[in-house]
Amino acid sequence: MGWLAVLGDWAIAAGSFALVAWRPTVWSVAIALVLLGGRQLGLAVLMHEASHGSLFRTRALNRWVGRWLCGAAIGIDIERYRSHHLAHHSFTGTDRDPDMCLVRPFPTTRSGLARKLLRDLVGLTGLKRIVGLLAMDFGFITYTASGDAERISEPPPWPERLRVGVRRLAPGLLVNGALFAVLTALGQPMLYLLWVAAWLTTFSAFLRIRAIAEHACTEQGADPLRNTRTVRAGPLARLFVAPHGVCFHLEHHLLMTVPYFRLGALHRVLVERGVLDESPVADGYLAVLRRATAG
User: Fold this and answer.
1) Are 233 and 242 in contact (CB under 8 A)?
2) Diameter of the chain by CA atoms?
3) Domain spans of the chain?
4) Rounded-to-integer distance, Cα 291 and Cα 103, Å
5) pLDDT of 42-87, one tens digit each?
6) pTM over 0.90
7) What is the DSSP letter of 141?
8) In this structure, how many other beta carbons lie within 10 angstroms of the beta carbon of residue 237?
9) What does the alpha-carbon distance between residue 111 and residue 119 come to, in Å, rounded to a whole number?
């Protein structure tokens, strides 16, 4: 199931490139950008699964696939991500949660959320993410997978900073270079710009919506049945903003090593037993966004 998910994401990405190569129109480019942004989020979710050791049976395979076939393609270092993310699981909904910055702005107004999504879709959020990733890689700020980075007051000397920064950048450069080389070998080097454009735009928007859905506007505190949300997602939502069972986030926080393809079954068991009767379970992502814009 791990290989099926990884190869499936890359197959949809390949189909998106093929669509534009076959019919290079405004509409095909728009469709490709949406599909690629969704698959980039899918790779992020699979990297997250691998960081929990639940994508494959062995630790080595989780680390290798999570790094080279998932995280590196979208600029995420699985090792640093794992440390940050396990702290999030340990302290969810408390002042020690490193992802609280994703929760604090909500609820907001509809116009406020619209402005955030517009910044995502025009690429401003993506450009800001590039600056942040480079600043983290070269030791200017502390690592974060969310947003609360801090300036490093006494960074290491420049030779050490350059050595570490290049080492951290290398996986992403190698994987993206390989993708560009494959497209060039197929006679379509310009298609690589679709990957970059999706990462800067639709990926940012899908990532934001997913992040809002998971914990925003839930009860703060250490109870996972109150501080985390599950969303009942339809087929389109699962394709774009909720790939690989990420919509079952409450279930994931209850038992974080349950693999993605078992989370739906776990949800059904919890519903049957009445465990989720008082928990934040939403009927779709539009319902979540309405709740998040109640301010």
Assistant:
1) yes
2) 59
3) 2-292
4) 13
5) 999 999 999 999 999 999 999 999 999 999 999 999 999 999 999 9
6) yes
7) B
8) 20
9) 12
